[in-house]
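Justification of computing resources. Each target in the renewal requires a structure prediction run like the one illustrated here; the chain below, 348 residues long, is used simply to show the kind of job we budget for.
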Amino acid sequence: MPHHNELLIGPLMLDLEGLALNLEEKKLIQHPLVGGIIFFARNFSDRQQLQSLVDEIRLIRPQLLLCVDQEGGRVQRFREGFTRIPPMQLLGERLLSGEPNAAQLIKDCGWLMASEILSCGIDFSFAPVLDVDFDQCEVIADRSFANDPAFVSEAAGYFVAGMHEAGMAATGKHFPGHGGVRADSHLETPYDNRSLDEIRCRDLAPFVALSGSLDAVMPAHIVFPNIDSDAVGFSRFWLQEILRADIGFEGVIFSDDLSMKGADVAGGYAEKARSALSAGCDMVLVCNHREGAFEVLSFLESERENGLFGPSTQLEAMRRRQQPEWSSLKQDQRWQLTVQKLASIGIC
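Resulting structure tokens:
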């Protein structure tokens, strides 16, 4: 059994600048309040380089959570040497059309994506997208399984089941739903004027349906002014009253990236971190803004003296449960058949 201190994971997730750790990053990831690293395409050239980077990090801080956005479609950070996962909308359309083996294909895609990531020693991908959309929201669009909450719930359920079979924790995003707004929260703060009843009937449905099988949830940087004045990721109403109390979700809550423009409604980086953690987030992400990350670390250090926002065991649930060998994975019949199926329908 791991020692208790090895299960304590700090509440800040960071990114890296390049293909290997620089001196600043080697020091930074040793900080006890840093709990995770998220990889981007700039951190990847091929599997061998990625494995070297993962090994380098693990040598310094074995307990860090390592993750990536490997949803499929246009959001797939690791490509060269990895199977190209289709956009979720293409998978959802096969289910909608009544194709006989669509459910199994979606499950197999979840399993394959997760298995390939796990084989590199990475813990999880932030997936699946549970937003209900077809083309209303440009930043979501084909990242969504469908424009019908029942089909999103069903398709995402198969994908989550596949991830779990591979040994990977699943993260539903972007709570309570990003599909109803046109604005991109990376660039501005979207406002959605619908009522809570409207959100419950549509956007919230997949989160309710899958609340028992999701290991984590990531809230959206969206303000619903007719429901609550705070953006969802900074709102105790959304995270405590709706997600925890009403829906009964007991897993991990990750903030979305605090450097996104949609988060700026909460103030500077220290204020954003305080608001997110106070609202109920277990871990906050600060990407593409190293100065902001240092601001958050400084804030967390001061709060730790007051017994607030320190490392916890809650995030241990996101740890990888299996790590297949890449060579064994490529010999696995399920991997081979899934790759063949995707090739036969022109997806990979």
